[in-house]
Amino acid sequence: MEDELIQQRRSKWDKWEEAFGERLPERFPVDKEISGLVGLYGNSSKEELEAKKIPARSAGRMISFRRMGKLCFAHISEGKGKIQLLFEKGVVGEEWFEKLSLLDIGDIIGVEGYLLKTRTGELSIAVEKYTPLSKCLRPLPEKWHGLQDIEQIYRQRYLDLIINGESRERFIRRVKLIEAIRGFMTARGFMEVETPMLQPIAGGAAAKPFVTHHNALNMELFLRIAPELYLKRLVVGGFHKVFEINRNFRNEGIDTRHNPEFTMMEFYEAFSSMEDFVRLTEEMLSEAAVRVLGTTDVKHGEKTISFAAPYPRISLRDEAKKALFSKGIPEEEWKDPERRSRLIQSLDLSREKARSEERFLVEAFDEFVSPSLIQPTFVTDFPLEVSPLSRKKDEKTVSRFELYIAGMEIANGFSELNDPDDQRKRFEDQAREKAGGDQEAMGYDEDYCGALEYGLPPTAGEGIGIDRVAMLLADTESIRDVLLFPLLKPRQAE
Fold first, then answer.
1. Residue range 108-132, pLDDT digits in tens
2. Residue span of the structural domain in which 173 resides
3. 169 and 136 housed in the same domain
4. Nearest 5°: CA angle at 257, between 256 and 259?
5. Long-range contacts of 482-491 (CB under 8 A, 24+ apart)
């Protein structure tokens, strides 16, 4: 059936050149977009428009069409708005009125005429001339049901954006979010920079990288897992307030919260600490919510999340222990290696990630505590063992926080380690773990340690997951709903 409809549309398109002079015009100057016309004149009265006879020249995709004798009514949309078109045989001429039969729903057309309001009060363009601009050769999904197949939505995002207004709104919110955050940072004197995507050492985070090969240099390279070590080199060089909004790549699993390439903002400020960035983060996110949605009270699923500062703090170590105690698991159970091994199995935790006492507490927190953190909450008291780039607070703990909202980690920040000797030792520890089979352990970066020897001032650093913040502001549970083109497994036929 669809092949037959496509053939009918192609048959009409074959007649366009003879009927309209061109099959695909090169340009059509638009005086004002549809949304601009609606914004300016949508509230004007019928009498005002009749008196002024305001000219209108616009273009869009035809989303409805109906004939009524010597009149035809249609709607065109450019995504942000729609407007009705009125074709009258006596105005466009009999020949061009009949040529309307060569148009289909989905075609893109340009129109010239003047504004009016119909008896029902709908803003319309009384068309004097029209120009078909592009043929929609495939029929659009039926308008009342829209495009509902999730797989098709992700694979054919262009079709999703044509049909589903809510999808378009999600991505507009994402764009506004990035604009708001960028404006927030530059207003506070931060300088936006760019750092390498291809790196000789996968550093700045604990993650498995994508590996590639540079032919001319005959060397192995990694798609970056984080820009951290390069941004801190800039702080050493005297760029004391820097940020970057860009992609990171991690060769890990895909689920509703993870995509192999994702957008992060990382930022660093000299002479600041973790405490300064706690306050900055609260201020940034509350301001962004207001800029995007007009409020700090954000609906997410069945709950309302308040982005208004301040956000509470909890201790990772204390909360993990409370969760374990509530399950009847005393401290000696996870402190003893043999008993901890049995416990890991019974709790279905990752044996690799929970292999030590400190790591076990982190895994217990992630499993039993973090899902309940719905309102914005800062988590502190992270173990030194899982924080190779953070400044020591004591022999076991670092000055680090993570921000959780709706059960998701949104941000990770800390006072930076600026002791080159300590950094070398931690890189060595990471190298031993990597040699022992930990694919997420960091590589040893001697050049970065050398940079620290020139002096990194006291510095705070943080990374914020832009995609996850967008999920919150767009009220969706899946990261794929805020990525225009998420990574998908190819279809078998492809």
1. 999 999 999 998 999 999 999 999 9
2. 163-312+375-482
3. no
4. 90
5. 482/170, 482/171, 482/174, 483/259, 484/157, 484/171, 485/157, 486/154, 486/259, 487/254, 487/259, 487/260, 487/261, 488/151, 488/154, 488/155, 491/155
Are both 52 and 108 inside the same structural domain? yes
Output the pLDDT for position 147: 72
Shared-domain flag, residues 134 and 225: no
**How many domains are there within the chain?**
2
Give the predicted TM-score (pTM) of the model.
0.92
Which parts of the chain have pLDDT scores under 70? 1, 143-146, 493-494
pLDDT of residue 493: 53
| Rounded Cα–Cα distance for residues 267 and 281 (Å) | 11
What one-character-per-residue DSSP string does 270-322 give?
A: ET--HHHHHHHHHHHHHHHHHHHHSSSEEEETTEEEE-PSP--EEEHHHHHHH
- Residue 490's pLDDT is 87
Q: What is the CATH classification number for the domain harbouring 37?
A: 2.40.50.140
The dihedral through the CA atoms of 318, 309, 257, 259 has a sign that is negative
* pLDDT at residue number 206: 87
Q: Which of 35, 307, 308, 284 is nearest to 177 (CA)?
A: 284
| Claim to verify: residue 132 and residue 208 sit in the same structural domain | no
Looking at the structure, do residues 193 and 134 belong to the same domain, yes or no?
Answer: no
Where are the strands (E) in 16-122, listed by range? 55-68, 71-77, 82-88, 108-117
Let me know whether 380 and 246 are in one domain: yes
Residue with tokens 């798609």: 223
248-260 b/e with 16+ CB inside 10 Å = b? bbbbeeeeebebe
pLDDT, position 1 = 65
